[in-house]
Task: structure prediction
Amino acid sequence: MGEIELATKNDREQILALYEMQKGREFCAWDEDYPSNETIDFDLSRDALFIIKEDDKVIAAISLEVDEAVDSLECWNKDLFPGGELARVAVDPSMQGKGIARKLMQRGMDELKARGYKSIHFLVNKYNVKAIRCYSVFDFNVVGECFMYDQDFLCYEKAL
Result:
């Protein structure tokens, strides 16, 4: 497995294909319109999209997110602001269960800290046992629950 690297425009088609593989999977809130090429463009414009390649194929991705709706939830600890969000964690289904998502999460947290964020926060579908198990090693605090994007979520937060 390759190292985590910043994505470029040349990776766009493979990233979109990786996103498409996730759609329709259990607990995935993504649909035909999201994430899209525009989502990728937004991430690329902010140097906020990281990928892992194996044999020149993108097998995993994560984004540093900007989402005002999530940022404005009341459950976040205001003493830990500014808080950054990680989103669009995607791993090729054939590569899941190998610790890749954890590696991406750690890099994302390191990147947020380097960019001056005091904390990380994000949403996890409250029934997604695989994701909850993956994130448990990081000792996130569950600070609330919300209903957004037609799903029930747990609100995870941690000081960086």
Summary: Helices lie at 12-22, 37-45, 68-71, 100-114, 129-135. The chain has a mean pLDDT of 94.
